[in-house]
Amino acid sequence: TKACSATLQPELEITMLTGANAMPELAEVERNVKIGALDVPMFAFSKTAKNDGARITKLKITAKFQHQGDVKNVKVFLDGLSAPVAQCGSMTAEGQSLWSCTWTAGDNLLPSFIPAGSTFVFRVRADIGSPGTAGLGDTIRFMIDPKVDVEGKGVTTGASAVVNGSNLIAPHALHIVPFSVFLSAVSPINDYMSMIGSGSLQAKVGAYN
User: Fold this and answer.
1) Is the peptide bond before 188 cis (omega within 30 degrees of 0)?
2) How far is residue 97's CA from residue 161's CA, in Å, rounded to a whole number?
């Protein structure tokens, strides 16, 4: 008789990374981010291949914010590489203040497969919209639902990977704030004294962002 060995289905475990272990900038739960800021750290997550090496064929990232111009130029970086493995200029509206970027590939979104038993770490950065497009005070929070947002296949078997992980929500929220706000005298610009009459204009003050 010939012995038969069962082939295990490839698996992918998706985990949200938190705090300074993800990125030093993500140590705080609530963060202010300046309008127009570039390459802002959003969140980090990992993918672990089990039973077989894995190729990634789909990745979707969703964010919740109020205005389309709040976030742009979303980039996904794989640890060890300087160039992003995925990027999109603007996120697609999904309704209810949800926006997304989706990437697909017939073979692999990544430059190499994830070896069985290995973990790849991904870090997501994006730009904040400029004044006039982003909303001051708006809140941004990213998320991934592994069951529907990530797909992959085994390197050896070619079978679709079982993706494990609960709905992953970035552990922190970002709040868009001005670069800076200051007050400056418009008129008069020097010391000035006068009698105050009803309805009289005594000074003008400008608020600048």
Assistant:
1) yes
2) 31
Bridge partners (DSSP) of residue 64 are 98, 141
Question: Could you tell me the end-to-end alpha-carbon distance of the chain, in angstroms, rounded to an integer?
Answer: 81
CB 139 within 8 A of CB 65: yes
Question: Mind listing the pLDDT tens digit for each residue in 117-141?
Answer: 999 999 999 999 999 999 999 999 9
d(CA 194, CA 201): 11
The predicted-structure confidence for 72-93, as pLDDT tens digits, reads as follows: 999 999 999 999 999 999 999 9
Amino acid identity at 135: G
3-class secondary-structure state, position 68: helix
The pair phi, psi for residue 65, each rounded to 5°, is -160, 170
Tens of pLDDT along 11-61? 999 999 876 656 655 555 568 899 999 999 999 999 999 999 999 999 999
How far, in Å, CA of 42 to CA of 172, rounded?
9
